[in-house]
């Protein structure tokens, strides 16, 4: 039984993974076999009933007025024996003649409904719910459909899109956080030279009117202020061209210890 169940499961998996073209061909072939079988059974049954009515049950040795060829009753003469139920014969003849068309038409409708329910309804429902959640900006779900047909591949593509959207949102969040850090660093770097400039301004505003600042000291202070302003302008131009932290150019250069000491003195009033 386990072997049979395993083989049946493999067969069902193979059928479930068939492409729409192959699945539709298989459905049509099955439909054709079923229609043929039902038509043959119905035509045979109707023929037997017609023969029974026309011959009174003894149709082997009795001549009858109907056209009979190759084991199938095709056409009757329009004169029936006495006590013959002609209405039943006409109805049976009509059913026998048109049953293949009826079975084919009904079979096509049933086949389409079964194909839609088995192969289209499930994945379409999954895709509809997935698109609705993505539209609502809800990415905390998983698109799963156990089939490798066209709609199964489409569900896999939607799942890949969902994962890509999650990665995009994570990347956007990371960039926003880095931008915040960059802005904070920018504000911090601006605060120090601005504080120095404010100190120089207060110094000059307080002591220059009193004549307590020598010409040499005044010239040196103005020179330092000009250096700080040039530094701020250069820094502002640099930050203006930076859109994210990834755009910060990395260009290492050597600097001597004396240069670091000199740059530190620029912040000292």
Q: How is this structure best described in words?
A:
The protein is mainly α and 269 residues long. The chain folds into two domains: 2-119, no CATH class; 138-249 and 261-269, no CATH class. It contains six helices and two strands. The chain has helices at residues 2-16, 20-55, 86-135, 150-207, 215-240, 257-265, and strands at residues 66-69, 72-76. Strands 1-2 form a two-stranded antiparallel sheet. A hairpin with a 2-residue loop joins strand 1 and strand 2. Helix 4 (150-207) packs antiparallel against helix 5. The N and C termini lie far apart (93 Å).
Q: Per DSSP, what share of the residues sits in E-state strands of 2 or more residues?
A: under 5%
Q: What's the alpha carbon Rg, rounded to whole Å?
A: 46 Å
Main beta sheet strand tally, sense and closure: 2 strands, antiparallel
Order of helices and strands: HHEEHHHH
On the 0 to 100 scale, the average pLDDT is 78
Q: Distance between the terminal alpha carbons, to the nearest Å?
A: 93 Å
What's the tally of helices? 6
Main sheet: which strands, in order across?
Answer: 1-2
Q: Which structural class do you get from the secondary structure elements? A: mainly alpha
Domains (count): 2
Name the helicity range: over 70%
Low-confidence stretches are 59-80, 263-269
Number of strands: 2
Shape: rod-shaped
């Amino acid at each position: 039984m386990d072997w049979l169940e395993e083989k049946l499961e493999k067969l069902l998996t193979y059928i479930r993974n068939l492409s729409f073209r192959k699945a539709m061909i298989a459905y049509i072939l099955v439909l054709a076999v079923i229609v043929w079988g039902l038509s043959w059974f119905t035509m045979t049954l109707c023929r037997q009933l017609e023969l029974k009515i026309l011959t009174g049950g003894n149709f082997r040795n009795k001549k009858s007025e109907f056209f009979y060829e190759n084991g199938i009753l095709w056409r009757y003469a329009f004169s029936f024996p006495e006590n013959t139920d002609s209405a039943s014969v006409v109805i049976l003849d009509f059913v026998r003649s048109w049953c293949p068309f009826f079975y084919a038409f009904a079979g096509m409708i049933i086949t389409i409904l079964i194909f839609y329910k088995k192969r289209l309804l499930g994945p379409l429902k999954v895709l509809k719910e997935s698109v609705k959640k993505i539209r609502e900006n809800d990415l905390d779900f998983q698109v799963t459909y156990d089939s490798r047909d066209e709609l199964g591949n489409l569900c896999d593509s939607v799942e890949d899109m969902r994962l890509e959207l999650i990665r995009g949102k994570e990347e956007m969040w990371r960039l926003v956080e880095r931008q915040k850090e960059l802005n904070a660093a920018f504000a911090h770097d601006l605060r120090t030279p601005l504080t120095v400039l404010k100190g120089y301004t207060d110094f000059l505003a307080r002591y220059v009117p009193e004549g307590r600042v020598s010409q040499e000291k005044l010239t040196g202070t103005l020179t330092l202020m000009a250096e700080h302003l040039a530094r701020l302008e250069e820094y502002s131009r640099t930050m203006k061209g930076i859109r994210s932290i990834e755009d910060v150019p990395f260009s290492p250069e050597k600097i001597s210890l004396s240069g670091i000491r000199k740059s530190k003195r620029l912040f000292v009033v």
